């Protein structure tokens, strides 16, 4: 009887695990951009639902499908669920939400923002949905980022001379985009791990320095702290020669 019970429990657990999965199909050109490596881990982190890419999915991203969910290379894409309920609909609702849209438009490819919200013809808007604990973010920013950057007056004699301070970077017109996507911008991918956002390090290419490891909650706290930091006065405007 004990073995039968164990088998039943394992079968139930396996069934529950399968129920938290959904398949998604999309044009190959979209897959090759890497956008789904950016989107799907964040959706899983928020919902514990695994979305797997497939040639024929329970939900599909289709060019020209209405209503438009995002624009890429001047072309409109929408979602076409094969079934209107369950986790397929949950993913569709998330991608259409402000959080999903901000996640989509924070994706960077070669320093550009290739995906725009529906109806947006110009550059993608700055993502604003991230919220976090400012006080915790201050501690984490000094702990993780202070070894390379001057984060605030607390470590004004620290950091590396060749790296800009947080206050100086806030002079950039796209400073929020840069901070939101910092883990995708060199040299950060070589040593940064954010649970639910980044892929594990390649075992054949271990980080050359002690890795920066944090949760998505830590990441959001750091962004919340950066938002309240004052902009550093750099004096006269920088003139390119």
Question: Can you put this structure into words, describing what you see?
Answer:
Strands 2-1-3-5-4-6 form a six-stranded mixed β-sheet. It has a two-stranded parallel sheet with strand order 7-8. The chain is an alpha/beta fold. The chain has helices at residues 2-19, 28-33, 35-47, 86-96, 98-105, 134-145, 166-169, 175-180, 216-228; strands at residues 21-25, 50-53, 59-63, 68-72, 75-81, 115-117, 192-194, 212-214. Helix 4 packs across helix 5 (98-105).
Mean pLDDT: 81
> Reading side by side through the largest sheet, how are the strands ordered?
2-1-3-5-4-6
Shape: elongated
Q: Summarize the amount of helix as a percent range.
A: 25-40%
Report the span from N to C terminus. Answer: 81 Å
How would a textbook summarize the main sheet?
6 strands, mixed
Instruction: Tell me the series of helices and strands, N- to C-terminal.
Output: HEHHEEEEHHEHHHEEH
Question: Cα-atom Rg, whole angstroms?
Answer: 21 Å
pLDDT < 50 runs, ≥5 residues: 1-17, 121-129
Number of helical elements: 9
Overall strand count: 8
Given helix and strand content, the structural type is: alpha/beta
